[in-house]
Structures are given as structure tokens and as C-alpha cells.
Amino acid sequence: MTDSVRYKVLVNDEEQYSTWPAHRANPLGWHDCGPVGTRQECLAHIAEVWTDLTPRSARRSSGSDAGHTR
To answer: Is domain 7-55 classified as CATH 3.40.50.2000?
Structure first.
């Protein structure tokens, strides 16, 4: 059985990424930031762009957020 649901990539203010069904409204605090496609395509995009899993607030408090932009 194949998954016919289309997904989108979301990001929140902490720069954490997630997949979400494309036909559903985004959860509060999450914004579109990548492709719409299969779940695997979206996960591949996340793996490519989410290289630092540390939440943005933790990077700021440690002073390591200087080079990060969104």
C-alpha cells in the first residue's frame, strides 16, 4: 500500500523541522519552509538542511548562534 498523502516541510521559531500533511493547516508557531512531496522527499530535505539539532534559544544562550540565519 502506498501513501498518497502529500506532505510539506515546516519550521518553528526554534529552527526545528517537521513534516506535516500538506492539506492541513499548520500548527500554531510552525511555518512552511520547504518542498511539498512524499514524506520521504520531505525527510530528505530536512536531513539536508537541519544540520544543527540544537534549538535556536540554546544556541543563543551559548553564544554559538552568530553564524546562523534563517
So the answer is: no
